[in-house]
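Ticket 4471: requesting a sanity check on a complex prediction with manganese (II) ion. Repro inputs:
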Amino acid sequence: MTAYVFNPTPTVAVPVVGRSECFPVHRIYCVGRNYAEHAQEMGHSGREPPFFFMKPADAVLVVDAGLTVALPYPSLTHNLHHEIELVVAIGEGTSDGQAIPVEQALSYVFGYAVGLDMTRRDLQNEMKQQGRPWCIGKGFDHSAPIGPISPAAAVPDLMHAEISLMVNGKLRQQSQISQLIWNVAETIAQLSNAWTLQPGDLIYTGTPAGVAAVASGDTLEGSISGLTPIALQVQ
Ligand code: MN
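Returned structure tokens:
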């Protein structure tokens, strides 16, 4: 057994609907501009190839069912944006260096959850302008709220689900999962060309139009039909 110079950080764990065991998080991948109307609001258009960025696994903020969880307002920003997203949770069966074909991709999905890709938009825009990495805009602490994961078999109709986000009771984002430019299977296939997907990986699949800023005291309620909704309050 390996001895460590200090205790390793515990594995990040997300609850699973109907199970006592949790989902252990390995990596967090995110897809950029994956709904046409959002791509347009960010100044782009069309079906450009999907692009990816990452958040650290411990950016996860677990949002338990039925609770309103505190979302700390992060440092350095004056423009904290919400991005409601479908999250895909990868299960067992992938192997080293394996490129996954689109036709087989869904068989590697353990389940799905509602998530938020919180973004320090001012810092992201600054980095974009300077051609620098987005990490400081996207990968900060608590930047990846996620609700309980529903096993895939429990949500057979997910590809026709509605996705929405309310802020202080008012609708801010609303679309259908069917509007994804790169659907779940295509996204998995594309990702697997670049990285070996592994059990415990989470994929934030992109956000529909309507991204905007939140302030301290705001309440966010995210939902995707068939999945456990999430609620947070910005601190
Ligand atoms: Mn996003």
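Notes from triage: The two ends are 42 Å apart (CA to CA). Leaving this open until the requester confirms.
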